[in-house]
Each structure stands twice: as structure tokens, then as C-alpha cells.
Amino acid sequence: MAARMTGMPGGNLTRTTLDTLGRAIVTGEYDETPFPTEAEIGKAHGISRSVTREAVKMLTAKGLVSARPRQGTVVRPAAAWNLFDPDVLHWLLDRKFSVELLRQFNQLRVAIEPEAAALAAVAADDDDQARIADGLARMAAAERGEDDPLEADIDFHVAILLAAKNPFYAQFREMVATALNTSIRFTNTIVGRSASVEQHAAVAEAIAARDSVAARSAMRALIGDVLDLIDARGAV
Amino acid sequence: MAARMTGMPGGNLTRTTLDTLGRAIVTGEYDETPFPTEAEIGKAHGISRSVTREAVKMLTAKGLVSARPRQGTVVRPAAAWNLFDPDVLHWLLDRKFSVELLRQFNQLRVAIEPEAAALAAVAADDDDQARIADGLARMAAAERGEDDPLEADIDFHVAILLAAKNPFYAQFREMVATALNTSIRFTNTIVGRSASVEQHAAVAEAIAARDSVAARSAMRALIGDVLDLIDARGAV
DNA sequence: AGGCGGACAATTATACGACGAATGCAATGT
DNA sequence: ACATTGCATTCGTCGTATAATTGTCCGCCT
Questions:
Q1: Alpha-carbon span B37 to B74, nearest angstrom
Q2: What is the pLDDT of residues A73-120, one digit of tens each?
Q3: Closest protein residue to D9 using CA and C1' atoms?
Q4: Residue A6 CB neighbours (<10 A)
Q5: Residue A58 phi, psi (nearest 5)
Q6: What is the pLDDT of residues B6-52, one digit of tens each?
Q7: Is residue A48 within 8 angstroms of chain B, CB to CB?
Q8: How far is CA B41 from each of CA B14, B25, B184, B210, rounded to the nearest angstrom?
Q9: Nearest CB to B105: which of A53, A54, A168?
Q10: B235 CB below 7 A from strand C atoms
């Protein structure tokens, strides 16, 4: 009887259940219908109540639901969701690729990354500089078709986030990675990225020259362009 | 035999266990000694394994630990922690009030809040404007000893974050609140906040005038001053 | 008739016990 | 010395039972 979904990646039952429920919640599957009870979830997925409870507890930890006796488990308003949780963000970006969400996320990037570049200009050590330079080199190589453009782009931005030497900025690492990953098909199909490498180079040079102000404005220009692109497209 | 810690706030056993374990982890209690087994945790706290597992699962959801059979549960490196989780941030700020952490957090605020103010200048509706004005008024009142300065300050900043009309910015709501809450005893004991109200007023006026640029720079100046304060103190 | 209080029921919270699966480690044999 | 095998440990999963909480509803009192 048990579903025995051991074929799924992650192997672990609780994890797969968490994923399924998380996705269902962010796709608004329980906006009208009430969230099922533990017993119902278990029956529907062919899992025991222990597994169900652990998955629900993890959803609770991420702010997606809250549970009380007699009331049942209820989906919390989206404002209470922990958007910076990698899982939650992943589910959100996967659900249907909303341009609106992409715009909002890049509005965040335009705040974070310029400041990260400014901090990096001050705090980056030799390893950080090397990593940034490497990311840039890979972007240039990708331009010539010799490397993966997405990976290179991600590496570059992540290198700067890490070079800021601030754990809060480092936190955006996985977020930027997943967001870039899902947004690339959008931004890249619109415009050639010929200018992009130059802009990235400007950022890298400013950081290498330890010029905080220049690094900040270069990065702001870079992401600002992406935002303009999205706004232009979104306003259609 | 069971500890019956029903006197604790939050009432719920799993929650209190989560809190205890979370605090222990961020205070580095398991940096040397290995993380205990589920059975050990249960025995130590006088709780069943179910509760233990659910608490550990929540820690897993927040990125603090990872578990594998035979290997046991291990504390993940701090870089993997979900710093933007309200619980995690709370535990961190509570642990011993590190000036370094406060500085790093305000380095984040100096990225977020000016941009939020700029967005608010564009997107704020009448309710948002009213809330911002109210926060400012309360700060002024607090200046005269007629209101709680901390609450007023928090309300003001939160109002701007919400006015940005971007869920990612709204996310910082609880973070700024808790951080301000714990940092107030630090920043407030150093300098009188006479100038502070004026700076806040400048931000509010710029937003009311729908002047993004002015709002951004005013907010940047405000938090920049806080940062300078911390840097001056931290550099002793 | 209307408000109020208590019984009832539904649902999560907690607990206990058992078995399975994975895996690091050691013993063992070649 | 090395590969293989067996073992012990620990998390993973399951099932069931009981407690606690609280919304709902019914009946009683005013």
C-alpha cells in the first residue's frame, strides 16, 4: 500500500513530502480549500503520520503554515512566509515564473549587490579577487562559446557577495544562484549580453582598484539595466 | 518523569525544545563536542523521541543541522545557517550581543533601507504615508517623553519597508524589529538622539514629496551615521 | 427569546515501542 | 596489504494510544 516513493531524489520521505506540500502551498492550492489534516495528508501520500508531522513541522519552521489543535493546520498569509529560505524561494520561482516576482527580486538585488560590491572593494582578499577575476574570465570565455554563460555569471556575482565578508550578504548566495538560474531564460532571450561583460568588467576593475564608490555605481548600473529590461517587458 | 515544562511560554514542547537546541547551537556549544543523538536529546530533556525528532527537523529546515543515519545529527557550518530566519537571528542576537554582528547587520540595513525608502517614495499609498507620518510623530513624542522611543523607531522603519510594496523588503520587517530591539541599549546609550528625529523627518518628507533620490540619500545618511557610531565604538 | 455555560467532538500534541535501512568501523580471511 | 564480510549504531519510518486544546453546539436559565 505504502507509496514507496524511494525513486525520488533526496531519497528521504520527509523531504519529498515537504517538497510536495511546499509547492502545493505556494501555488495557491489551498487558497480556497482548507489545508488537509495530518491524517488526510498521510493517507493521500501513503505515508505514516510521523513523516507527515515532520514535514508539516518543517513547513511551520519556514513560516508557511501554523497548526493548532482542533483548528487544524492552516496556510499562513504569504507575508509571513520566509522568502529567504532557499526552499521557499525555489518553490516560488518554479511555480509559474511570474515576471512580477522576478522584478521584485531584482529590486532587492539592486539594493544588495551594489553595496556588496562596495564592501568587497574594501574587504576582498587575494582569494576573493582571484575568484572575481575568474568569474569574469569565464564570462568572457562564455561570450566566445567556450564556457557556460549562466554558471560564469553566477560565479561572478557569488564571488562578490562572498568577498563582502559579511555573513548576511553571503546569505544571498544561494538565492542569487537559483534566481539567476530561473531568470536566465527570460533575460537572455531578450537582448544580447554583449554589453553585459563590459559592465561586469567595470565592477571587477573597481573592486580590484579598491574603489568602493565606483564598484557600487558600476554594479548598480548593471542590475539597473536588468531591471529596466524587466520593467519594459512587464509593462507591455 | 517527563519534565512537563508546560510553564514555559509558547507552551508547546517541540517549540521550547527547538529554542533550547537552537540557542545551544548558535552559542557554539557543539563546536567541540558532537551533537547528541536523538535518544540522548530525548533523555536529557525528558521528552519523547517524537518531539525530539520534530524539533531537530525544524532545525534542519532552518539549516542549522543535517542528519544522516549512522553518522548522527551534525551542526552545519555557520555559513549554511538561514540567518534571515527570525528564530535564528533572534538566537544569534541574544547569545552575547556581539558588536561585530551588530555592525554586519547594519551593513545590511544600509543596503536595504535606503532602497526601500526610494521605492516607498514611488509606491506608497495614503495608508503607507499615514503610517510613516505616524511613526515620525511618535518619535517626536517620544523625544518629549510621551511615547516609547524604541517602538516609535521600529514603527517608522517598518512602515517604510512595507510601503515599498515588495514582499522581499517586507521580509525585513521582523528582522529590523528584533535587531533594533536588541541594539537599542547599545546605540542609545552612546549618543543623544536629538539629530535622529530630524534625519527621520527628512526621510519622511522626501517620501511624502515622492522624491526617490532624496529619500534614498536621507535614509542612507541616517543608517550611515549609525554605522559610523558602531565602527567608532568597535574600533576601540 | 436570548445569552450563557457546559458537554462534546475534532484535531493536533505527546508518548512509546518496534523494525528497517544505511553506513562507518572493525574483524577476518586471503 | 587489501578486499570482503559482518556488526553495531543511528536515523528513518511505522502504528497505536493517550493527553491537551479549542471550536461547536445544545440545553438551561433568566
A1: 10
A2: 999 999 999 999 999 999 998 887 788 888 999 999 999 999 999 999
A3: B70
A4: 9
A5: -70, -40
A6: 334 456 899 999 999 999 999 999 998 999 999 999 999 999 999 99
A7: no
A8: 12, 13, 35, 55
A9: A168
A10: no
